[in-house]
Amino acid sequence: MLDSLITSKTRIKLLVKFFSSEGNVGYLRGLAEEFQESTNSVRVELNRLTEAGLLTSGENGKTKLYRANETHPFYLELRNMVSKFLGLDQLVEQIVLRMGPVKKAYIVGDYARGIDSGTIEMVLVGKQLDLDYLDFLTQKTYEKIQRRVSVTVVETDPKEVDGVLVFGV
To answer: What architecture does CATH give domain 87-166?
Structure first.
């Protein structure tokens, strides 16, 4: 869907990076390396998105950092579009509705950092979940959105240690 509306692959990668998860930041050279794109193509798209007000930038020493502009009127709509593009909204909804007593669901790994690596890593918190249905759902998700799903099930809520969720503590 998103790739039919937006023809620039670099722009799509930037939107996924900055609008898939709150707080994602990036700088020109790091983004170019992460996307395996030229710095010029990334710079052009960063400038376009910044001029449109979708991204903000700030200095961190000599490095210019970019992030999503959370005050932009389209911020939530773009987050929803990126979520749908990645298939995360349907995946989480199906899991919560049919897996049993899911207390919480976390997206972790690359997608939590805004990197479309092709694998969605999730952690589910709950007891007595339907693991057979989970296997079926991960296969169907791959067929539907061409992304592998890796799910870890834990029974207890994670603890936050130095800003990082730690499971099984």
So the answer is: 2-Layer Sandwich (3.30)
